[in-house]
# Entry
Amino acid sequence: MKKKRLTRQEEFDIMKLVLDKFLWLGFGIMTFGLYSMAVLYDITRGFWFMIAGAIILIVFLILIVKEYEIIK
# Structure
């Protein structure tokens, strides 16, 4: 069976779908950290959740820059 080759646009669309999940995951974790800090008064735990969310978003940024060679 022959494998189908994706065009550059199809590859980009699939990458957007996958990386969008990273963005939502990072944002959700950071939001939970903020919630923990504000409502549950667990400052240390909330801070670590916010750091974890930020790390996920940084990984997201690195993947985009590396994959699509975004240059200023």
Observations:
- The chain has a mean pLDDT of 84.
- Residues 9 and 50 are 34 Å apart (CA to CA).
